[in-house]
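User: Hello, can you help with two protein structures?

Assistant: Certainly.
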Amino acid sequence: MGSPEDLPTKRTARVLFCLYREHLVALHGFIKKTRATPDEDLATARKRQKELER
């Protein structure tokens, strides 16, 4: 549900996506600071996905 991109500062970014009515929608983007995706970032993306589906 996402794709990493290397930034010039050697940090890694993540963007969480979903498919909605045949469109690719970016739900949330953030800079990775640890190996695991923080629960708060996952919760934000899930909340936005639910808002789309209403």
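That covers the first. Now for the second protein you mentioned:
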Amino acid sequence: MQYSSPQEAVSLVKSGDTIVVQGSTSIPVVLLKALTERAAELRNVTLISGFGVHPEDAPYAKPELIDSFRALSIFVPNNLRHAMRDGSADTIPVFLGEVPSLFRTRQLPVDVAFLQVSTPDEEGFCSFGMSADIAFSACECAHTIIAQMNASVPHTQGPAKIHISKITAWCRVDEPLVEVPTPTPSAIDTRIGNFIANEIPDGATLQIGVGGIPNAVINALSTHQHLGLHTEAITDGVLPLIRKGVIDNSLKKVLPGKSVGSLVLGSRALYDYIDYNNDIEIHDVAFTNDPQVIRQNPCPMSINSALEIDLTGQICADSIGDTVISGVGGQHDFFYGSALAEGGKCFLAMQSLTSKGQSKIVAHLQPGAGVVTTRFQPQYIVTEHGIVYLRNKSLAERAKLLISIADPSAREQLERAAVDRFGIAFLRLK
């Protein structure tokens, strides 16, 4: 069945339904706005979101609509942050790579999937484009699939496609995709990037995130050879390395010759580059983030960031105190997979100070801060002041190492905290 308007398409949604909403830079906003228009006639409709980027707040996540819609996320997208703060939205703490299994085992039952897909190819298959991550598994489990079909969505390669006959209802839209500007690395970012790049061998497989520091790492890898890419998010930053042949995926064991990710975000130039590009594949996040898959590739390098880290190595990456602003994502999955692999390395990189001049290396995490990565997992911690290795170090040894790469203005206070906390064990290291 097909419908010509968004309003007709979303008429299939019933009270009590659970909808999974596709994310990344391809959130199906036209469908969400049409659904919100039905608020008066709907009750207890749950909308589950993953990672996503959009300049407008989610239309359904408003205090006055809480009887109609429940906004739920498994990685708080930027368009739900205001709703999280006022209590109109909620989040489930979960490893992103485990979400598909929650759908498939009906621990999180899915009734409807909302997608933004490409136009069909010659065989009638539409691509998930920018976001297979949780949308791919949601479509396996949903009894109703509603899509906005957009010619701006690139036709990405890999298994993340759906035949038009499997789409219950669709409407055409003609809208540009959201673009995410590529951050220019600062001088501090560049220093951090150089520390990390020096630890990455030729032939390694990269998992790399989003932001100035990841781009600085990429810039510092321009003379490396035969790198691979198996990551969660593919961004503009990797394009220079792919075009130069630095990333050629020739030594990978899993999908050799292919750059692999579960979502894409960046510029129109990136979207055009991946359109029908057989060298890049987009997969279900249950595949990309599986530690047992990650560990099979040669020397997997996991490069992630944090909001703060305490003197024992506990890492907070999803909240500022009680305020949840993102999610676990793939940090744990790639840390674990890389740690299991021969030659694998895990890097946690951050500037030593916040924008307000506060140290990100702290004696104790803020009250309410979430521990995304436990003190049992970190290997390399990197700031602009150096790189230290925490694995197999005692608590007191960790404190000494972390203080050495903290901002100089914070070191005296951190040392006093370490003496109070670890006593003679810390003092004997001085």
